[in-house]
Amino acid sequence: MRQTVYGNQSLSQFDTIVIGSGAGGAPVAYVLAQNGKTVLVIEAGPCHLDFLDDPTQLPVPRFSNDELKIEHRNFIEMQTLVEPRSWRNSEADGDRIDSLTGNVQNLPKTVGGGGLHADLKMPRFQPTDFQFGTLLDIPGTTFADWPVQYDELEPFYAWGERLCGVQGLAGANPFEGPRSSPYPMPPGNQMYGSMRVGEGLASLGYTMFPYPTAVASVPYDGRPACNDCGFCSGYPCPINAKGSTAVTMLRKALVSGNCQLRAETRVVKLVPNGAGTAIASIETIEPDGSRGSYTADRYVLAASPIEDARLLFLSDPAGLGNSSGLVGRNLMFHYQTIALGVFDERVHGYRGRTVDHGFADFRGVPNDPAHPLAGIVEISGGGFPIGEGQFYKRVIDQLRAGKWDGPLFKKLMRQSPGRDRVMVLVIQAEDAPQSQNRVDLDPALVDLDGLPVPRITYQNHAFEVDAGTFYEPKLLDILLAAGAHYAFIAPRDPIPASQHVMGTLRSGSDPKTSVCDANGKLWDLGNLYASDGALFPTSSGHNPTMTIVALALRVGAALVNPGSPTSVIQ
Amino acid sequence: MLTRRELIRLLGGAAALAQLPACGDNAGDRVFTASELAMLDKLADVVIPPDDQPGGSALGAVAYIERLITAFDQAMPPIYASGPFSDRNPNGDGTFPDNDFATFVELDRVNDAAWRLFVLGSAGLPDGGPNDALLGPIASLKDQIKQGLAAARDIHVSDPAELFNGLDPDFRALFIELVTEAAFAAPEYGGNPELAGWDMIHFEGDSQPRGYSQWNGSGYDERPGEPMSTPNPFDPEPLSDDIHQLLDTVVAVLGGKSSS
Asked: Would you say the ipTM is above 0.90?
């Protein structure tokens, strides 16, 4: 019998139910459990971390250096055929763009959530990132100030860095905000490819720094140091060297005795009380397909911005907690500009942590046309052979008018210009919030259980498109200065490739212009909270995980001590 | 003599079952006829032609495809090899771990349905696919392959590459994908025999539990022949002139830049 319940299996009464076990859910469970509150974490996906609740040993992952399993057979992600999402750019497209009913912004659906697949690049946001409602006035956008500013979040950033174990070098990023403490660990071993790119950056006056990542550079908190196996970005860690919130906070919550985890359990409805002022219970589909129900004093949404909004619409066609009309709206993804540099030599970018350095010179300055707001830049290695083959197929399709050229394919695979000789620069650029970019329910498509799937309506604003265009030639110059023989910008897919999903339940200080308050509570419901990237009013130009963790820790702390969340920090 | 079922019970049930060939599996009761197998081999060698290195056929394309098509004939469908390690790389003490890749992960309810739909088509689920009414039923992988092979049989040209390029583009895309997966996935999925695919492209494959850089208490040790922080000792197969020309074309088409 496969195990689906972990932690204290005798618990049946709960102070809080957390829906989702990733970077937004695990920190809440951790804070509550450490403070004596009973918590039920419900996760729709399976658990691939055996012994996750065993205090005597580290979890034994079913994860591995297996490209087919992880990248092409979606071991930890949603399955398009039975869990599709639909997509359209605008209402003018009709119900959906039919050819795009697949994995739209597919985040892992597994115990540990998106924190598992990421290589856990965890920079903080900059202080000004929280103030774009005040600083920017751009027609067609809904930039807003955050209800929590950097100074208030900083102690939670520091706490999250300690709990996850973030490596980095304080002061190396000249654009970083003030820190109350150094990074818990020094940077790890550097990859050859990023050294080459660093030479190009230095020659052009840019500042490269070790990327803050929750990957153990030395043994940390009982977990081993990373051995740079290479299968990092997109791959869950086989040796627990990545400090995902699953193997750090969720594990500690489970071994505390105050927490129970139910995997393979889908929450399909939030049931309000008679007055509609609070949640009375939740309805689930259990691992065997039967129906279940659970109750608690409080409920926390942490299932990802898309699934959070979907659940509120599944619970009420008008959207539960939607007096503002903003549930599902202001959906954001980072606008990625991707530049590839092909070197004559093999820079073996697949050996290492995928991204170990970056630079922030293209984050930009508000209202400065000479430095438009874009984002932090990742210096990344190439991928793996099956994906490389797919890339060459696209190249051959273009160059040979759809005819296959086997000898060319084989020569490309053997000489590997698209993998072994490639370094990649990726801007994670600010995506302007727009009210019409949103999640609702598709009117016809359903999932395996017959429930309407999320429909994403989204198109870019000139804000991020123009910024990307501005920086494209600069990326190419950097790669050529680093010694690349060829450099080009990767064509954009019709659907953005970023798995950084934000917004849909934006937090704010005014119930008319936001869905949640500063502590993550939905304005309309007395005991329903959100604690993941759905709370973001704006997207910043930095990887979101560190800020999700910090916000979630703060949501948990506010549940323990609403008057002084900071006092809960350990 | 123990029966297969008795052996399974003694060895511990489903995990042991996954290690055994299913009744009626493979030789003697194959998915494809002899002529279909010959055609599969021929087309696989169009996708990856043999030269001084093996082609798609020798890289296990047919075995890989058959293993996937027959996945649900087995108690533990070989969809996801388990982890964390294969037995191809040593532990820190020089010993080798057991091969976790040789066993497969039990599918949860949703993944089971998804893979049945992919492999067996809409007929693989009692009520079909969830969106068949809107999008149409899904054909089984076996039927998709067999239909492609039947079409190939009806094209009478001597050049296999010309034959392949005369087939339906959707079939060609599917077949290229499967042959590529066979050649370059871990061998536990049925292809890449003796790691020939990885060797051909100078790729080390899975690297755990050794990795490329191990903390030694004061710094990091790296593999001498496959360094992480320094250049490779040599390039086994440098870029040729025609690949350089191709890259010049790609850069021109995409509006990129070149140092040449």
From this structure: yes
Summarised one tens digit per residue, pLDDT across range A316-347 is 999 999 999 999 999 999 999 999 999 999 99
CA distances (Å), origin B68, targets A318, A506, B25, B99: 44, 44, 12, 20
Greatest Cα-to-Cα distance within chain B, rounded to the nearest angstrom:
72
Say if A278 is an interface residue toward chain B (CB within 8 Å).
Answer: no
Question: Hey, where are the domains in chain B?
Answer: 4-207
Of A2, A192, A228, the CB nearest to B231: A192
CATH of the domain spanning A5-384+419-568, picked from 3.30.470.20, 3.40.430.10, 3.30.230.10, 3.50.50.60 = 3.50.50.60
Helices first, then strands: H and E counts in chain B: 11, 3
d(CA B88, CA A407): 30
**Beta strands in A242-301, from DSSP E residues, in sequence order:** 259-262, 266-272, 279-285, 291-294, 298-301
Neighbours of A497 (CB within 10 A): 13
- Domain locations in chain A? 5-384+419-568
Q: What's residue A104's pLDDT?
A: 66
* Chain B CB within 8 Å of residue A94 CB: no
* Share of residues in chain A with pLDDT > 90 (%): 95
Q: Tens digits of per-residue pLDDT, A58-96?
A: 999 999 999 999 999 999 999 989 999 999 999 999 998
Q: Take residue B232 and report the two structure tokens written for it.
A: 């490779």
Q: Which of A5, A58, A82 best tests the B interface by mutation, with the highest count of B CBs <10 A?
A: A82
Name the maximum alpha-carbon separation found in chain A.
70
In chain A, residues 476-535 whose CB comes closer than 8 Å to chain B: 476-477, 480, 484-489, 491
A228 chain-B contacts, CB cut-off 8 A: 211-213, 220, 228
- What torsion, rounded to 10 degrees, do the Cα atoms A130, A132, A134, A140 define? -150
Whether A364 has its CB under 8 Å from any CB of chain B: the answer is no
* Contacting A residues, span 49-68, partner chain B, CB-CB under 8 Å: 60-68
Residue type, B131: N
Task: Provide the whole-model pTM.
Answer: 0.95
**Which residues on chain B are in Cβ contact (under 8 Å) with A61?**
83-84
